[in-house]
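Write out the 3D structure for:
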Amino acid sequence: MRRLAGGSGLIDTEAEERLTEPAVAHAAGLSEHSAREMGAGQLDMGLVNCRDPYASPYTPAGKPCHVAPAMCMLCRNAVIFTSQLPRLVLLADHVEVMRHRLPPVTWQAVWGRQAAALTELFDECAHLMAEARQQAARIRLDLPLGMGTEYDR
């Protein structure tokens, strides 16, 4: 797993396909249990996976993360599969819409670091981005209602 500057980790397509193998899970810094749960979609937070939704740096210990998916790109618990790139393309589109709706200072405070993390991810996965953008055109991104009230105004 490659660590991105925002804190999240990127698992490439080959490792994603073999994540339930103990050696691959350990190489990615995951427990075998977490790797199995991620492979089954049980730790999918809407945009990316989470190592432990009850150990969020943004939420008191033992409480489920309340800032997902808005802060996932900046979280050390986030694990991104390349198969999740189309959803992240849609998030990047949302962030750009917010750039035009919010005052620049507000946008930078709320979305600037996420935008930078998405740019880094997309640069890292440049060879996959054309296909991710094509897939993004065929899906819809459902963001939690709270994101619109907490982050987009």
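The beta strands are 2-3, 9-11, 49-50, 78-81.
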